[in-house]
Design brief:
Layout lengths: L16 E7 L4 E7 L5 E6 L7 E3 L9 E3 L2 E2 L4 E7 L8 E6 L3 E4 L7 E2 L1 H4 L2 H4 L12 E8 L2 E10 L2 E5 L7 E2 L20 E7 L2 E9 L2 E5 L7 E2 L10 E6 L7 E5 L15 E4 L7 E3 L17 E4 L2 E5 L5 E4 L7 E4 L12
Antiparallel strand pairs: 1-2, 2-3, 3-4, 5-6, 7-8, 8-9, 9-10, 11-12, 12-13, 13-14, 15-16, 16-17, 17-18, 19-20, 20-21, 21-22, 23-24, 24-25, 25-26
């Protein structure tokens, strides 16, 4: 990034894009659409957006049910992740109502991961919707050391891990808290808003959760609450971890689950440099009055000194000093659902 920004091009104008993704292995661009009346769609580009082709979006097999008598149909495409260098044709897609799909042919076709869909915790009704009608898989994390090891974040259910490319699953919610449940420490029903592994140490995982910020240092086997009870770093949706420092991360706080606006209508970003032991709030260059923006879970990204985030009112901000000061790239975009650096 050279400090100069310009709008390169606009693709799929007027269509809500739930996820924009570039596969680093092939530089294939993906766009996942939420057409509302027309349903979900997917397109890909092999030439950096000069041309696009539609592919079949992940679809639930005929007869699949969310619960008895409620047919399962893809309502939202919420996460996309490449399968790793060892599997150049593999892609993963997370959806609402809680299905994980795998492609083994670079997205020509997708298959529901039946082992997760039929997990007893889901079929017994312990998965449920948070901000949407049904449970949704919004985060897929691949371990670069073993690309058969997958962690997913489900809202609302929690974190699940597979070490055999999705054949079997273990719940990884120990230490999380779900204050909205009769038993806040129940095994299932937790609401991670986003799940991320540290690029420099995949055993360190972070999540911005409905009930705070949590971190694991043992590969998601246990979690610790690292929220700032007396500060701003608590409720929110978005989180990013530094590409070169496993102890550094950013969150974009919101007021609360009841009033989902900027804290006291003042936009800020919080950063930790010590793995969540302490948090610093940065406001320089961000609006500090009459601001109702929040940042969705996939709309905060970082790479080295550069941090960017987009908001629900179409503002796009950039920091060249790891979040300590900010400049505006645009105030006139549509609602920002995701950002992707490549």
């Amino acid at each position: 990034m050279n400090g100069s920004w310009h709008l390169g091009d606009v693709h799929h104008e007027g269509v809500p894009v739930s996820i924009a993704y570039a596969d680093p292995r092939t530089n294939t661009w993906w766009a996942c659409f939420d057409h509302g009346h027309w349903g979900v769609k997917m397109q890909r580009s092999a030439d950096e957006g000069r041309t696009w082709e539609e592919v079949g979006a992940p679809a639930y097999p005929e007869g699949s049910e969310i619960k008895e008598g409620v047919p399962a149909a893809t309502r939202y495409l919420w996460a996309m992740q490449q399968g790793g260098a060892a599997y150049p044709h593999r892609l993963w897609v997370g959806t609402e109502p809680g299905g994980l799909f795998q492609s083994t042919d670079q997205g020509d076709t997708f298959q529901l991961v039946e082992s997760l869909w039929n997990h007893p915790s889901r079929t017994s009704g312990q998965w449920f919707g948070g901000g949407r009608d049904h449970a949704g898989i919004h985060s897929v994390v691949i371990d670069p050391r073993n690309e058969d090891r997958i962690l997913i974040g489900v809202s609302c259910a929690g974190v699940f891990e597979s070490t055999d490319a999705g054949q079997h699953w273990q719940v990884r919610n120990q230490g999380l808290r779900a204050d909205f449940l009769p038993d806040p420490h129940a095994e299932f029903g937790h609401d991670p808003h986003i799940l991320i592994a540290s690029p420099t140490n995949p055993d360190i995982l972070w999540q911005q959760n409905h009930c705070g910020i949590f971190k694991s240092e043992d590969g998601a086997r246990t979690w610790q609450d690292i929220s700032d009870p007396d500060g701003e770093a608590n409720f929110g949706f978005a989180l990013s971890v530094a590409s070169d420092n496993a102890d550094q991360a950013w969150v974009a706080p919101a007021n609360s689950d009841v009033t989902r606006v900027a804290l006291q209508r003042k936009l800020c970003i919080c950063r930790t440099d010590d793995g969540g032991k302490s948090w610093t709030t940065f406001r320089k260059g961000l609006p500090q009055e009459h601001c109702f923006d929040i940042v969705y879970r996939h709309a905060l990204v970082s790479d080295g000194d550069d941090v960017l985030f987009g908001t629900t009112t179409g503002n796009l901000f950039h920091s060249a000093d790891r979040g300590e000061s900010w400049t505006v790239i645009s105030n006139y975009l549509p609602m920002v659902y995701s950002l992707h650096l490549f």
